[in-house]
Specification:
Blueprint lengths: L3 E10 L1 H4 L3 H18 L2 E7 L9 E7 L2 H13 L6 E10 L14 E8 L4 H4 L3 H17 L3 E7 L7 E9 L2 H13 L2 H4 L2 E8 L8
Antiparallel strand pairs: 1-3, 1-4, 2-3, 2-8, 4-6, 5-7, 5-8, 6-7
Length: 210
Amino acid sequence: MSELYHLFIVHGFREAYYQLSAEGQNQFWSRIGEVGQAAGSKLLMNCYARWNNEACAGWGVEMVPDVQSLQQMARSHEKNQHYRYIEAETYIGTLMEGFQVREAAFPDPLYQLFLVKNQNNEAWTSLSEDTRQRLFSAVGESIDARGGVTLLGCDINWSNEEYAFFGVNAWPDIAAQQAHFQDLAKIGWHRYFYSRTILGTKYRGEVFGG
């Protein structure tokens, strides 16, 4: 198996975190970085999301070499009582065929995390293969036309049956992202796919309480 992509969505922090001193909170974050470094992980993006979704403090994606490295990280977090302080959900995926990890070329991108549900949809299955390909092409054309870029797309159905895949788009501003969704509405995209989107901006040391 190739390298794994670890999506983490942080919903918030437990009371134990807020009871830590400022120094204790800094040590908490330092331990997370040390655990990732020891396992050979590479942080690809780390986003602040509370401004658009109060149920989500932030989210990010890191690349880990293999499943053993991921398990090593989990064991270290358990040892450090990591889950006493934080409430999160994670998804593990591999790059979908034809995708590669990219970076946004514009400053201060707006990041769009999308999680696509693995849900039977008769409207989609009734379409011909040619029609499906035209719809996928229309989505890609809209992203390009609105100045966006798809940073990665990952298959997670093998590790989580609720969702089929996740991906991240980057946009130059929120107007471009809104225009893309207007394009999706015109082609009836949401008739065929049930998705969850969380927007984010690059984490710049926003304070999470305490």
